[in-house]
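Lab notebook, bench 4. Still working through the backlog of constructs that have no structural model yet. Next entry is a single chain of 156 residues. Request: give me the structure tokens for it.
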Amino acid sequence: MKTFSLKSGDICPKWYLIDAKDLVVGRLASIIARILRGKTDPTLTPHLDHGGRVVVVNARHVHFTGGKDKPLYRHTGYPGGIKHSLPSDVLAGAHPERVLSKAVERMMGKNGPLRRDRMKNLFIYPESEHVHQAQQPVTLHVRDWNIKNCKKENAS
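Model written out:
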């Protein structure tokens, strides 16, 4: 019996839609990273980008558990150019999808071209409108998978 190896021509990506309203950032990011890496596919081939395409809506309404409002750091590239901002400030700002995007990116593994290609398959929108209806994404009800996936007030 020969070992099965997926070829790049055999890849047919699946599209998934996730509503992030009242979901916990870390749990949601790990689910998205698993889908993007192709871990949910039975034909996992680590050296190919054959994961799904993920559309996340309502990214402005994600939550952190506990006191995890720790600073997010970035560097401008110049000496003394370290900057920081709090996730609550970023979520209230002009680009709230960056909080979830960075969380997923840091769960994707090592830097490299494959990670960059996989991150291009993630589409995050701050509100409920998106432009991917033509792809007919399958809705994933992440809130129903585990009671810990959403914030405490809406857990029941």
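Notes after review: The mean pLDDT is 90. The longest strand covers residues 15-19. Flag for follow-up if needed.
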